[in-house]
Amino acid sequence: MDQGASGGEIEQPSVLAEQALPPDDVATEALPVVDVPVAQSVFEIPKKEKHPPVAITETGEGDISPVQPITTQRQEFPAGADKQPGLPLPAAVVSKASFGVDELIRRLKHSEAIGVFTKLAIRSEALDLVDMVGRYRQHMAGITLPRLRTGFDGLLLKILALLDNDPELAQAIYQAKEQLWQSLLEVKT
Amino acid sequence: MMRSWLILTLLLAAAPAWAVTKAEDIAAAITLRGHDCGGNQVTDIRETQTPEGGQTITARCPNGKRYQIDVSADGRLTVKLLVN
Prior knowledge:
heterodimer, A: mainly alpha, two-stranded antiparallel ribbon, 6 helices, about 40% helix, B: alpha+beta, Nuclear Transport Factor 2, Chain: A, 4-stranded antiparallel β-sheet, 4 strands
């Protein structure tokens, strides 16, 4: 049973264009245009710098000097702290959710819980969202950040509903929701 | 003949019990693209290859609606409602 000449290989669009930032009256937050290779993934996240963050202190009039690197330490939180609004998530939860988006997409591609046509439909929906991001950057009327987010949330819910037979992947995607959203905003259209 | 059976047996053994059928797969794709299907399995599936390297599938949903699914050579999938 042949399921299509296009096969299961999912590639990214090759259309690349520099986009301007949206106008203030439309945007609630600026979209950074990061030079992310589209071929890697629609939802690629830019790699962070290796340098540790540095604390800055003011020593005089306009004189700012670095003091010492801030060491990132794992914080201990009381039980149930993650359920209280306003408190940061415990480090264990954050680290669990911060796996690679690439890995997620690879798992989705190879999941047997959904078929080839469903995967192609998901990809097409994702590409439609990327197109919307491009139109948003071009200040096109009717495309707002909340509308983009609504489209993203809708697609995510559909994917989660389809992954009934792969609950581990569904959970992983849900946990990486914000990472996926950020990488969608940062994708170069 | 024996070899064909062996391959079929291996394929069935490798596939998980919950692997989706083509009928379910196409129904899910139709729904995902925003169309009403009225169920999770389509019937009357017909497939053709396009000269451009894509694929066209027609299928009937449980609600009686017939859809055409076009898969372009670059893998973009679109769904159209066919008038009966």
